[in-house]
Write a structure and sequence with these properties.
95 residues, mainly alpha, 0% strand
């Protein structure tokens, strides 16, 4: 498993790319509902804070196997958050 520092950087990078896509949609797609895109961006920022807090305070610090499984679940949640946000953006662009 990668380090916690690396996981934090991955969270920052992936969710900042999603936020960049939100800004791109607002700028280049005038038919997209800007309020919905802003809501998507706010949700991504809230999930970013939640994921960073999860990484900073893992469950079962005494048992490395539990921590590894916990961090794996954090990574899965990260991918789910990014995927859902991008799907919502895609639905706004297709309008």
């Amino acid at each position: 498993m990668a380090s916690i520092r690396s996981l934090k950087k991955d969270i920052d990078l992936l969710l900042s790319l999603v936020l960049e896509d939100c800004m791109y949609v607002m700028e280049h797609y005038p038919e997209a509902d800007k309020e919905k895109v802003n809501a998507i961006a706010r949700e991504v920022m809230a999930r970013h804070r939640d994921l960073r807090a999860m990484v900073n305070h893992p469950d079962g610090k005494e048992n490395p196997a539990v921590v590894k499984e916990y961090m794996r679940s954090v990574v899965n949640k990260l991918y789910d958050v990014a995927d859902q946000a991008l799907e919502q953006l895609l639905s706004e662009v297709k309008k």
